[in-house]
Amino acid sequence: MAKMEESFVNARLAYANMMAGEADLKTQIEEMKGQEEEIKEENASLKARDEDLQVTKTWLLSEGAQLLANNIHKGPEMIVAVAAVNNAMSVVGINYSLQQGYVHARKKKNPFAEVLLLNRNIGEELNAAVANFDSLSFPVIEDLPNLVNEPLSKIKDALYFASSGTPEE
Question: Is residue 38 one of the residues assigned to a domain?
């Protein structure tokens, strides 16, 4: 009987340990469910952030860069291009004066070859300079939308290549 009682005590102890282990497992399961919910929330947050970043990247490369180019095109940085048009216009004025001088010289029987600065095509050159300015484009910006799915390093390489610069460390 003592053996039976000892077996019964051992069985009760084993059952108590099993129940304690089950309680520990239930606690661990509840903790894991909480962690699972946290991970799901974090994943959803990261997914939303990723989508937002992708939309931002797409806008920057497809519209933002073009907007920047348009602002540069219309901004004070275009002094060089405007100066070229202005210089061409000045030459038009000079040529007009030279043409008038040529007409006057012809009346006096001076040959055309003696009027060295006369350029009869200057009007066309001015129109070409104005058309070139008006149609000024930036190929690197036009190519940026093709880089939407590329990593930032590749985008930077394309931009630095275009400007012949080097990335800042």
Answer: no
Domain count, the chain: 1
Q: Identify the residue whose tokens are 């104005």.
A: 130
d(CA 158, CA 162): 6
What gap in Å lies between CA 101 and CA 119, rounded to an integer? 13
Q: How confident is the model at residue 139 (pLDDT cuts 50, 70, 90)?
A: confident
Domain that holds residue 117: 75-136
pLDDT tens for 16-55 read: 888 888 878 888 888 898 899 999 999 999 999 999 888 8
3-state secondary structure the chain: CHHHHHHHHHHHHHHHHHHHHHHHHHHHHHHHHHHHHHHHHHHHHHHHHHHHHHHHHHHHHHHHHHHHHHHHHHCHHHHHHHHHHHHHHHHHHHHHHHHHHHHHHHHCCCCHHHCCCCCCCHHHHHHHHHHHHHCCCCHHHHHHHHHCCCCHHHHHHHHHHHHCCCCCC
Q: Is 160 within a domain?
A: no
